[in-house]
Every structure is written in C-alpha cells, then in structure tokens.
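Recap quiz, item 2
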Amino acid sequence: MGSLVLQGVTKRFGKVTAAQDISFEAEPGRILGLLGPNGAGKTTTIRMIANILTPDNGRVTLDGRVVGPWSQEQMGYLPEERGLYKKVKINDQLRYLAALKGIRARESAPRIAYWVKRLGLQEWSARKAQELSKGMQQKVQFIAAVLSNPRLIILDEPFSGLDPVNSELLREIVAELKANGRTILFASHRMEQVEQLCDDICLIANGKLVLKGTLRDIKRRYKRDRLALAYDGEAPFLDAMERKGDLQFLERNEDGCIVRLAEHCHSRSLLERLLETPDLELYRFELLQPSLDEIFIRTVESL
Amino acid sequence: MSRKSLVVMQNEFMRRVTSKTFILTTLLGPALLIGFFAVIIIISISAVEDSFEDNSSGENSSLSIAVVDETGVLSARILSQGIGDHALVTADLNSAHEGALDGLFDAYVRIPPEVISGTGQPVLYSQEGRGLGVRGALGGIIEKALEDHLLADRNVSTDVRSIFERVVRLDTVRLTDEGEEAEDPAPEGYMMLGFVLGMVMYMTMLIYGTLILYGTMEERTTRVVEIIVSSVRPFDLLMGKVLGIGLIGFVQMAVWMLMVLGAVILAGPIIGMFIDPAMYDLPVAATNQEILDAANISMPHISVGLFVWFILYFIGGYLLYGGLFATVGTLVDSPQESQTLLLPLLMPMIISIIFLSPVMVNPDGGLALGLSLFPLTSPVPMIVRMTVMDVPFWQLLLSYGLLVLSFIGSMWVSARIYRASILMYGKKPSLRVIASYLRNG
C-alpha cells in the first residue's frame, strides 16, 4: 500500500532539462529523503509525482498504477511554496481542501477538529488565514496535507520557519504517520533533519540522481576518514605529519582536534604512536562516521 | 463538467454569496441607482413645471416681470394669458429699466414695434440671468398674443383658427407573420428597452468579468495554487471558478431584475403622480392610464420569448466574456498588469453599444446582422433587433451557436495557458511563450 516507483523519469522545459532519467522507490512505513541543492530538480520531480507535471519520458507509479487524477486523492502534499486563501477561515479552508480530495464535509469535520487540536490551532480555526502567523499558517498547510489520510505524503521543507517546539511536534507526527505505514517523501536541504528522520536517501544534483540507498548503506559506503582526538599533553608529531601531508586538521582546540587522515595513513599506526608518546594521556580516539552534510558536499563537488 | 469543478464552483459561490460585500452591493446597488434616477426625474420634472403655466411652484420662484410693449397692441393679450404665479405688469422702458436695476422687477421684456412686421424680436432683460426660467414660456405667450393679434387683424374666423389648434399624434401598429395586427407601444419604448438591456449586459460583463479576472489570479497571487493543483486539474479549477463567480453575478442580476420588475409595475403610477393632468387638459380626476396615454408614455411589453432569449444571451455573453477575462487573469500576476490586456477585450463590447441606434433604425441591415452574429458583440445587438423585429430563427441559432463555441474555445485557450503558466510566479510571459503554451499546453 503506497509504494511509489519512478522509472527513468525525465522532464525538460525548453532547452533546460530539469530532471533527467530519475529512478527510485519509496516504500510504505519508511521515510525517503529527497536531497539536493537549490534548483537541482527536487520540486520538478515532486510535481511529477503529484501529477502536476507530466514527465516527458519514464513513468511514475503508485502501487503499480501510473499516477493521475486518481492518485491525487491518495496523496497529501505540502509544497515549499506556501499559500492559503487569505480571507477564508481556517475551518472552511480545510473543508474545501478536503472536498477537493473527494472527502465530504460530514467526514472531514471530525478530522479537521482532530488535527486542529493536535497542532494547537483550536482558537484560530474560526479566524481568517491572514490573521495567522507564518508558522501557524504552515501548520494549517500541514493539516491539509494529512487530512485525507493519504497513502503517500510529500513534505517539501516542512520545518522551515517553525520554532523548535513546533518542529518537534511535527517530527513526532511524521514519525507516527510512518509507523502507520504511510509512504513519506521528505524534501530538504537541511541535512541534520534528513539524518534524524529518513530511512532512505536520494540525492539529486543538476537534474540527475547522483546517490541513493538507505541512510546506513550510504554512510557505510563512505570511509571513516575523520578522526576525533582528545588528550592531555603535547603531540608535536601531529604538526609534522600535517606538513608531510599525512593528515589535515579540520578543527583544533586545547583539548584535542579533529583530523582527516590521508589515504596512505592508517589510523592504527597513529593510535600506536599516540599511546607510545610519553606524558600524553589519550582519552578519546574515535573514527567519525561521515556526516550527510559532508557526503552531500563531497558528492556534489565531485560531479 | 467534472465533480471537482462542481466542488470548486460551489466553494467560489458560497464564499462570495455569504460575504458582506455581496449582500451590501446587492441590496444597496439598486437603492443607489433608484435614488440617482429619482433625483434626476424630480429635478427635470420641476424644471418642466416651472416653464409651464401652473400654480404649483413655490413663492420663492414667483417673479415680477415688466412688459414694455412698444407695439401698443400686444400687452392686453399677454397680460390676459398670465404666466403661472409670476406677476406681469406693463411699464414704460425707463421705469422698467430702473425697476430691473433696483430690484423692483426681476426682469423686463421689451417688445419693439418691428415685432408686428416680423423684422424685430422681443428681448428679455434681467440681472444675474433671473427670469431665464420663464424665457421659453414668455416667448410662447408673446407668440400666441402676436398670432391672435395678426389673425384678428385679418378677420380670421374661429373655424379657421381651430385648425391651428389641431395636434396629430402618430400611433404605431406592428405587422406580424400571421397577418394579425398587434397594437404596440411607440418605438421609443423599444429603443429604450434595447438600450437598457444593452447597458445591463455591458455593466454586468464589466463588473463580473473583472471579478472573474481577479478570481483566476487569486490562487497564484496567494501561492495556494500548488496545493490546489495537486488535487484538481487546472481546467477543472478554472471552469469551476468561472462558473462559480459567474453564478454570483447571475444571482445578483436576478435579484436586481426582480426589483426592476417590481419597479416597472409601479413605474406607471409613479410617473403619473408626477405629471399634472392640467398639462394635458385632462380633468384633475383623470386616471393614471389616461394621463400616461396623453403624455404618450407607454410601458413596453416584454414577450416571454424575448425574455428567454435575453436570459440565454445574457448567460452566453457573460460566460464568453468571463472566459476571456479568465484568460487575461491567467496571463498576469497583478490587476495593474491586466489593464493593457483588457482594452482590446472591452472594444467589441463598446462597439456593440455605439452601434445600437443604427441597429435599431435598420435592424435587418448588414451591420445589424454582422454585429448580432459575431460572438464578441452578438448579445446586445441581437436582443435589440429582437425587440424591433422578428429575427429569423436560423440567425438566432447561428448566432447563439457561435457564442457557445467561442465560450468553449476561450476556456480551452485559457486552460492551456493556465496549466502552463500556473506555477510560474512573477514571470510575465511573452507572446512567443504564450504561443508555445497554446501549442504544447
């Protein structure tokens, strides 16, 4: 229920290819992070999934069936470009958006009441959208995306502009939706959020898919070449190693440093050397997993 | 029409019909209009009464006018006729002149001897243009006095004189296909009716067309559009909006039409109340109908067929213009930008109003036929033609068919542009881009 498959999807606007031969799958009960710098083709890809744009080549299927007006009713979408009808009351607004998904007022009313309460907007539900703060409007749009109990939920930068309390609330709800077996697509360029939330990753750059897999696999694929050290005492040989090109200081302070070891340099030999150094008490030696940020930057730079 | 168009339409309609603006304009619109016309009618009627010989005007407007009769033969006939409750007195030129300057007289009229021979004219003298209101009436009295004098001078009998009193009023009879003769009101009534219908259509299209224009921009200016099009096809969204806002206009017009209908029923008696029977030499107890007949005012009778076609053309023309305004709405990002695009749209509408009278004078001519077939102008001239003649059915059918096709065409075009431009914010599309939208959708 709700597995989304993209096969060789391509979209061109005139001479510009916004998305080229993109293929990936998103599974129910998992969160897929769609990453990429601004203008990489994330939004174009999302719009093809949402059946707002039609791909020039390739196809998008939900549960094996090509997306179309039918799938729009199975899908909730929080676009990055936020907007509500300014002069319409929140309740009416949500009822209309639900009706467009094919949900009758009788059915949508209790759901609206539930979500409005869940997101702490009870006092605002009879107010017009233009009276709400940006963060509150964003929560209303989030409700619109989940109101129809969609199988597929697409959230484009859902946390941007939210305060920490509301971000946390949203994160909780997203985790809950995931546990309920929904397929969630989460587009962002905020790596720490993606790392916290996502199970699977797709990295898009220049309209192409450059990296995909589970978060764990991707991290494993990248060598642990950063080393965090903390010690008491002096280790002048580290500077000598840097001069020789064996390592590179990434951060340095009184207690220690983070370095990147060169290809030919083994962490084991460095550890031995540290332990052998007199008057130096080592209390941290950790090979760090590459951060998604780093993987992202390195992948994009290597293109 | 799809189910989602209906949802959009219902939402657009309900949102607007319950708004304070709608309720206020619906109720206050006609009140303002009626008030406006009432003021005009009251002012013009009292002006008419002023120039007539009646006793109803107030004390303030009572003038004192000196008559300087240098012919020596007209003053008696002038004074005997009188002029409302204005005072007429004879005076010599000097005292009249002094009196007018001192304020003793409001004005004086000097009738030189040449008036008798027809080589001179009487002159009205006054300060600050006072007495100008009686100029027409005074001229009439002098003319009558002169006429009486000259006729009496030549010993014309009362029989011959009565010939001059005769008035001919042209009654009109309309011939129909069945050869029957149906008596009809004066063509002026129909001309007015046609003009009113035309203006009503023009105003409606202008007001609600603009509303549709702003409506189609709404989703894009508020950026809500991406959520909406992830649920609805752009065509359905556009169709729902045009029909929903269109329906609003229709409801408002229907309410106003009912009010007008009520007003028409009451209009006769109301006009009758303002007209003094004495003006038409009728007894004070004359009925309204007698008064209206005498004043040659008749309420045009609208046939059921004409009414139905009016409604049909109203809907058709309204939807076509709605579709075209919607197209403009899809092309621009702000009302300001729409102005230049609206002008060519409004031209045909204005043309159809400008050519109303040639159409009425020659309803079967080429111009009338052309205008009533061309979809952008057809509604108004066709209705006008129908009021003055029996339009062949094929012409009606052709004209209406073209109108409906044009509406569908306009919706198709705007939907294609809408679909392509819907997610482009702040970019003004060039003609080339618009053409590519149309080709590729």
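Residues 53-59 of chain B have pLDDT under 50 and may be disordered.
Residues 352 and 377 of chain B are 5 Å apart (CA to CA).
End of item.
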